[in-house]
Amino acid sequence: MEYEPIIGLETHVQLKTKSKMWCGCPNQYGADPNTQVCPVCLGMPGVLPVANEEALRLTALTGYLLNCDLPRHARFDRKNYFYPDVAKNYQITQLALPSTINGHVDFELNGKTERVQLTRAHLEEDVGKSFHYDRQSGVDFNRGGVPLLEIITEPCITTADMAHAYLNALKDILTYAGISDCDMEKGMVRCDVNISVRPKGTAELGAKVEIKNMNSFSGVRRALQYEIPRQIEAIQNNETIAQETRRWDDVAGITESMRNKENAHDYRYFPDPDLMAFEPSEAWLEEVKKGVVELPLARKRRFMEQYKLPDGDADVFVNDVSLGDYFEQIAVKVEQPKALANWVINNLQAKLTESETSLQELKFDAAALLELIKLVDSGKISTKIAQTVFVEMFDTGKSPAAIVEEKGLVQVSDSGAIETLCQQAIEANPGPADDFRKGKEAALNFLKGQVMKLSRGKANPALVGEVLKRILNG
Ligand SMILES: [Zn+2]
């Protein structure tokens, strides 16, 4: 019998705000423990939370970007439980009336467009972080109260690769729009995975296993690659799969049972009496909408269509937004955007990386690159010489025309001069010349290379080829 896994993901993302969700403490990673706290985020008696408007805005913006519905009435609830990392003994979250519902994320996987449906994205607060030492434990409350968005998918993901691709697409969207930095090493994104397995074609879901607190997308993929066959094997051996929470051991590469979930926790949720319902006005939502940016997948498709770029080039400009924007500035002015893309990717990007400089620090403007391309197109300089000119341009900021002039790099298209060089090359290399006469076409490239060398790269390569052939065949 064939089995199919059914996977749902709950992704927690820290929002990129200056301050925390309910108080003015900084939302900043890396400070000394318990230095970014106040009576509000420490849950002292008698304090009152005040909602961070920027967090509400980023939540609504996420809703627009993920194609969600934005209810005009949302509410904050208290989720009550005792744990050392929650000083208040409850976490403020949204249970019954979240800020966004429904939605979907589209992304590419193995050349196909896939869609993951979302159930909701709700706003809550992060909790403190526990540390365990040899003989004692400690809690750092700097993270407590940081705005956290929980994005929940429908159980519609069917492979480990699909889960991985969805998470990457989600991360790209959120970083693109400035909603979160999604720095996984700083714990800004954490993921809970729900997985069950059932005989293919049946409607009923199998017992659900939860893998908690994954902090890397590759970890999610590996955990699923382990967990799916584990559950299938258990079913085939007539074992019952326990509804439980498991932990992923990244070093051992296995999941192990943490706790049984037979008795679901009762968190005694109730509406937070200290907070008003959130009822965004249409005018406010219109303002939020202005933050909607072109999403990575849409940008990729537009680059491929508008500029006729291949998949790989478009990917480069999607992953490096400022480089893509730079390309676009000039692309609208050239006839062959693909040739420009080659320049931007193969030369400019490579040089930027090599010299560890940013686009903002460039010594020449976009018009100069355009000028260089025109010099090549008009046949004034060869592509090879253009590479030299580019390096000089990059280092000094001088204009391409000035460099060509100064260094005498104008392409030699004078057939008399080229003929002399060809004669020299043939005389110096009788072997390859003979080979060509005997029908070995490849020998011509060798001779061509020699002529280019003699001309110090300045000869017009097409013309060199013609003249060589004429002399050798004549
Ligand atoms: Zn605080």
In short:
The chain is 40% helix and 19% strand.
Describe the fold and architecture:
The structure is a single chain. Helix 7 runs antiparallel to helix 8 (337-355), helix 9 (366-377) runs antiparallel to helix 10 (383-396) and helix 12 (415-428) crosses helix 15. The chain is of the alpha+beta class. The longest helix has 20 residues, at 217-236. It folds into 3 domains: 3-289, no CATH class; 296-407, no CATH class; 415-473, Arc Repressor Mutant, subunit A. It is 40% helix and 19% strand. It binds zinc ion. Zinc ion (ZN) is lined by residues 20, 23, 25, 37-38, 40-41, 145.
User: Structural class of the helix and strand makeup?
Assistant: alpha+beta
Name every ligand kind in the structure.
zinc ion
Order of helical and strand elements: EHEEEEEEEEHEEHEEEHHHHHHHHHHHH
Terminal residue distance: 74 Å
Mean pLDDT score, rounded? 92
Helix content: 40-55%
Topology, element by element:
Layout: E1 3-14, H1 53-65, E2 77-80, E3 90-93, E4 100-101, E5 104-109, E6 112-125, E7 129-132, E8 137-140, E9 147-153, H2 160-176, E10 189-199, E11 209-214, H3 217-236, E12 244-249, E13 254-260, E14 270-271, H4 282-289, H5 296-306, H6 311-319, H7 321-331, H8 337-355, H9 366-377, H10 383-396, H11 400-407, H12 415-428, H13 430-437, H14 442-454, H15 461-473
Parallel strand pairs: 11-12
Antiparallel strand pairs: 1-9, 1-10, 2-3, 2-14, 4-6, 5-6, 6-9, 7-8, 10-11, 12-13
Helix pairs in contact: 2-3, 5-6, 6-7, 7-8, 9-10, 12-14, 12-15, 13-14, 14-15
This protein binds zinc ion.
